[in-house]
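Re: that backbone. Tokens:
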């Protein structure tokens, strides 16, 4: 046996121990982080890659965005729709902006998806004079800055105690409805423009659920995909949320 062979023979056990150690660390990480870690991963060309925080379905295929790009894009198209000056979006794919502004061809369904991330250290809040909690009021103000005055409902000074399901977040002042009536393709497009903006800003505005047009988005979904919404009365446009966007914020505390 040559000196080189003896040297490589001594190195092999060290390499094996290192490989086993790294596998053990990876296994421990997967056990601690669970499926939430894997949900953000995808396979491409045999490699494991981190999935983008947000994705937009365009005519050219799926385009990935980070959270800041999603916030920027959804805000820009909303301001431009009002004829207002919009922030610079030159670094964002034009196909993304076009899809967010126009909606998908022949169907104004969801185009943008963003992974959810719910804060776990929020304090429970009480109603303010508007009938909303401070977090919900912050959301209302943020929407108004971008979308202008809207037709709102689902809350009132002093709170409400009827008109919704028994466990509705409307009764806690954590929810509001934004109306787009009557049900038309143009109003569906506007409703989706708002819905996309809401989920893009869900992290900083502590949004919990968004429901619109037979679909719902949840902050608790680590993959952030829209799901089918099963209305209690399939023939009721209001209960199917065809004429309004429902949005609510996290309750904090033990809620």
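Recovered sequence:
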């Amino acid at each position: 046996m040559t000196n080189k062979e003896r040297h490589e023979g001594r190195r092999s056990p060290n390499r094996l121990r290192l490989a086993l150690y790294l596998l053990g660390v990876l296994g421990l990480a997967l056990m601690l982080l669970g499926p939430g870690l894997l949900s953000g991963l995808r396979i491409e060309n045999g490699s494991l890659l981190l999935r983008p925080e947000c994705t937009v379905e365009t005519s050219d295929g799926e385009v990935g965005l980070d959270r800041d790009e999603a916030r920027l894009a959804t805000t820009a198209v909303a301001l431009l729709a009002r004829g207002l000056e919009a922030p610079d979006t030159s670094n964002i794919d034009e196909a993304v902006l076009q899809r967010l502004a126009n909606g998908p061809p022949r169907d104004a369904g969801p185009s943008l998806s963003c992974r959810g991330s719910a804060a776990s250290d929020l304090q429970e809040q009480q109603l303010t004079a508007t009938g909303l909690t401070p977090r919900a009021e912050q959301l209302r103000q943020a929407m108004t800055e971008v979308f202008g005055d809207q037709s709102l409902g689902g809350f009132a000074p002093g709170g409400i105690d009827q008109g919704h399901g028994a466990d509705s977040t409307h009764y806690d002042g954590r929810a509001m409805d934004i109306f787009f009536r009557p049900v038309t393709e143009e109003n569906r497009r506007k409703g989706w423009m708002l819905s996309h903006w809401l989920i893009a800003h869900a992290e900083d505005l502590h949004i919990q659920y968004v429901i619109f047009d037979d679909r719902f988005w949840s902050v608790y979904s680590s993959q952030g995909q829209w799901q089918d919404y099963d209305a209690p009365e399939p023939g009721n446009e209001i209960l199917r949320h065809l004429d309004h966007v429902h949005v609510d914020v996290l309750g904090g505390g033990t809620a």
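Residues 3-11, 29-48 have pLDDT under 50 and may be disordered. The first helix runs from residue 3 to 33.
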